[in-house]
Predict the structure.
Amino acid sequence: MKSITRMLYLLPTVGILLLSSCAKEESESYDKYEDQALEAWMTQNRPELLGNLQSEGGYYVDILDAGDALSEVKPIRDTACWVRFDFSGRDLNGNIVLTRRAAEAKMINTFTKYTHYVPYYRYCGVANTSLLEGSYLAMRNVLHLDPEYAREKGVEEEYELRPGSRICLYMPSRIVGSGGVEGQGGYEGQYSLSAQRPFIVEMQIQRVVKNPLESEGSEVDSFCAANGQLWLYTEDGTEPNSSKLPTGYDDANHPYKLHEQGYRWVSACDTVAQVYVDVRYDPTQAANNLKFDFPVKDEKENPLWDNHSYNVGFEPYNGSDLETRIAEALKERFHADGEYKHPGLEDRNADSVGMDGEAKIWYIARFLDGFIFDTNIDEVKEIIYGTVESEGEALTYKPSEDQASQISAYYYTVPNLCYGQWAEFVTVSSQGYGASGRTGSTTTSGGSSGYSSSYFDYLNYYNYLNSYYGGGYYGSYYNNYYYNYYNSYYYNYPYMSSGTTTETTTTISTEIPSYTPLIYQFYIEPKDE
């Protein structure tokens, strides 16, 4: 009897195993038929690429630009690194599915002012060897090319991607994403690719970074040096253009005194790197409007890397008078009754926020190239987006409270500022939204439930990788694992909401790439307001 009972308990398990076996066979069968279908399409449309089939992944490669002038640059696969690359994806009929290119998005009427159209930035190291994704496989592996094809292209039969390389990949669905492909945060194309459909990606490698934390720190330092000079407060104050923290207003190295000497940026404190403050920022004065200019570094190693002012040729980022319009709007909003005067210059004992105070903050958040990714000022929203979807309200910040939802750079800057003061700071991602950044998305909810984009969407697939390998590895190495990992977890994983809604709402979130420095320009309300 006991043996019979045991057999009855085992029957469901056997059934599950049988079902799993059938599912596996069905999946393997589909892969076989999809491979045959993709091969047939290649035979009819790109027969010259049949010899470029890659055994790992089953995708085909076309070398559009070998980057011969960059032959001295090391291939990507030589090291664990981060890669910045531009790409555009299509289905086999040529319909654009997603794109990082503003001109393409404008052409197919999916361009949005919420989207930062810049090359993608992703981790590309040896640790994630289990990831079967086409662009990663192409970056990390030697590409084996047909001998005749290689001779015609003037490349080696065993080709390795490096900065300057431009290629086209023809990929089966199993190395794209099991849920199909759709854009996010404005990167949508004219067409959403259904699950289990081949995908074509054209991409160009632009830059390779070995240590992203070191790289963005260098970017911030160079940005400040190129835009008003930088003065460092350090514990010993022995380096050039540095000193110990000032002892008071009369100290020659006080931020206000340094500003008169041409040093626009100073360290927020002497123990935290790459949090630099401009205490004399004043958008009502044309001379104080921030010019977004960034010098090209490592030109020989990364000749395609250019991080000058964001200009896609379309409003509002088309080289127009955007900064002047914003400055005029801020002056009208906050100082319509007269000329603005910095509260700390008239009275050396002006009331500062301090550690126990509460600040009501109005802000404009940007990337180093000038793109505005967030603001709570309605007048700025109208200038950038043309409409104001939701009325902004002041951000409340209390330095004495542990506010996990606030960026940590506030803690090092706001307490030292006065009520009624304008200021700005530039900082690295670890003092902002976390090294893993934030996934861009357009979320629509309504009816009985609301939902965000699919977890298996192509860009979320990328960001999952960045979060797990990039933010986790580098964050833990630099003693910042807890903040970066959980911050990225909140932003990068989609959710299914519960409950009911009576109207349809759309929430748009601009993507913040991993390891991306930020600029905050802000105004602290006077205390009596």
